[in-house]
Design a protein that fits this description.
Blueprint lengths: L15 H13 L13 H8 L10 H16 L11 H7 L5 E2 L7 E6 L9 E10 L2 E9 L9 E8 L8 E3 L15
Amino acid sequence: MSIIVDWKQVYDSPNRALIERAAEIACSYEGVREQGGANRGPEVEAFLASVGLPTGNAWCAAFVVHCCRLAAKELGMASPVPSTGKVARMWRRSPSWARVVTPPPYPSIFVHLANPKDPESKGHTGFVLGVTGTHAITIEGNTSQAGSREGDGVYRQKRPTLGSSYVTGYLDFAADPDPTVRLRVG
């Protein structure tokens, strides 16, 4: 797995190593596919169980939470990512300082909500590995080769960033909550 930007030189924070390791763990699942039907299979069911959801539910948010929990356990720290299998809840439960509209120049989590004003909106999420021009390179669970939000496995994608209705925002847990020291792309 290769991260596109050497973001360790861009910003250092307590969560930096966790987000990088979670993105690496997510990449290790690339190629996992659902088995035995939609939103089913050994790995998918483990992702869902990690957030208390039964088999058959959409699992992109559970995938992100699972990867962050594994990274946190390895590093002996708590995961900053809200423990939920619902994208809208992940966005709402994240601290306001972590919710940003431009992609950071290092790994983060993207959030897409079909209706950002609906607190229970359907959506999609995954890890941003890096940004190239107006696109983010991502690793996502419950997507497809074509990039759908309800897919059959873990894939890398190329998603639009700025000016796109696809991305609601980014969860930048590697940032410092003090806005005077935060770095931003753009």
